[in-house]
Backbone:
């Protein structure tokens, strides 16, 4: 109490208004919990968009592959006889390419998960399995997902080390984890993704990049997730119905 009294007397003598200083410096803005609420809402919205995109892609693709014969039957009944063969050929090719794409994507996620897990275990992360799994799932979102995953890994790594010294323990390990994740992404971007885009769906990596970019700008995260499967389906249909079109021929020459 005596110390507080002396401080108050000192500031009064010096004619210093502490309330005014705090107000002018806007220190109280750091205690504005609306920022944290907005941040949490952004995360929830992002996860909802990502979940919607994943569910949409896997739901549609699963039933398309599983019930291929049903789709063919419906096509025979609805479409004119002149287009029947084209539609049936399209369904068969789409089924084949999407199956290859999702097998490739699954293998890519497994490889990325294992590499993330190794990085986290090397640096003694307590929640290595959970963090590696979440970051691998985020990797489904092209280009943006790995960035979000690395940020999430850094945050969760720091949270898991609460109570330890920041400079000697938390900061160095977090930096090492980020570097490790960046190396994993370099491997993924230069090996895994090109194989999936060029081998599984028979599309050039630049072509895939442009499609994902346009889909992301137009439809957001959902668009980025569904871009490759949707583009593959469109290419197959265009090739069947407009094989003599020059633009279509260029786009579909690898199918």
Residues:
């Amino acid at each position: 109490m005596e110390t507080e009294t002396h401080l108050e007397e000192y500031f009064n003598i010096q004619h210093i208004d502490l309330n005014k200083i705090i107000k002018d410096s806007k220190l109280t803005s750091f205690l504005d919990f609306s920022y944290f609420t907005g941040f949490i809402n952004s995360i929830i919205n992002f996860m909802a968009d990502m979940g919607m995109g994943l569910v949409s892609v896997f739901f549609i693709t699963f039933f398309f592959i599983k019930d291929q014969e049903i789709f063919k039957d419906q096509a025979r009944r609805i479409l004119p006889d002149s287009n029947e063969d084209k539609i049936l050929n399209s369904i068969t090719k789409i089924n084949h390419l999407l199956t290859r794409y999702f097998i490739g994507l699954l293998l890519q996620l497994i490889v990325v998960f294992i590499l993330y897990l190794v990085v986290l275990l090397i640096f003694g992360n307590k929640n290595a399995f959970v963090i590696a799994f979440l970051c691998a799932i985020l990797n489904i979102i092209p280009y943006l997902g790995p960035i979000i995953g690395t940020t999430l890994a850094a945050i969760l790594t720091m949270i898991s080390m609460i109570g330890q010294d920041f400079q000697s323990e938390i900061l160095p390990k977090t930096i090492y984890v980020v570097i490790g994740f960046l190396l994993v992404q370099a491997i993924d971007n230069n090996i895994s993704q090109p194989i999936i885009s060029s081998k599984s769906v028979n599309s050039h990596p630049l072509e895939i990049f442009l499609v994902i970019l346009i889909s992301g700008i137009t439809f957001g995260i959902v668009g980025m997730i569904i871009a490759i499967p949707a583009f593959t389906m469109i290419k197959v249909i265009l090739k069947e119905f407009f094989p003599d079109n020059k633009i279509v021929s260029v786009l579909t020459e690898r199918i």
User: Anything to note?
Assistant: The longest helix spans residues 81-122. Confidence is low (pLDDT under 50) at residues 25-33.
